[in-house]
Each structure stands twice: as structure tokens, then as C-alpha cells.
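Sequence in, structure out.
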Amino acid sequence: MNDKDETIKKVQETSKIIRHDSQSFEKQVKEVALVHSTNLFYSFRTLEKELNLIFKSIDYTRITIERIQNFCFLLNQDLMQLEEIYSELDEKREIEKNKG
């Protein structure tokens, strides 16, 4: 073989090695990308679940506050009625006191 043929053979072998290395590198990049994509997906799902828990907690807190407000409103009504009863009792006592 002459030098030209030898050089062509070396270039072909080197090209074959580069092609193999490129395919191997491409495969590794795809595997890493898949791992990162999977991790990102699970991170997103975890974040979504946490946000849903926060939203449920906010809704539960809102409902609890509404119940407390309703209780306070009813308590206030009862206290006002009680105040009216005591006021009527005081008036009747005063009337009875003035009669006697």
C-alpha cells in the first residue's frame, strides 16, 4: 500500500471511531435528558400536590372563619335579647318599687 491508501484507511478508521463516539455521546445525552425530564416531571407533580394542599387549607380556613362569624352573629343576637330581657326586668322592678 502506498501512503495515500494508508492515510485513507486511517481517516476511515478515525471516522468510524468518531461516529461510534458520537452515537455513544448522543445516547448518553438522551439518557441524561430523560433522567432530568423525569425528575422535573416528579418535581412538578410534587409541587402541584403541595399547592393543592395549600388551597384546601386556605378553603378550610375560610369556611372556619365563616362559621366563627356566624357563631359570633348568633351570640350577639342572643346577648341583645338577654339585654332586652334584663332591661324589661329592671323596668318591672322599678315599677314594683315605685308602687310599694
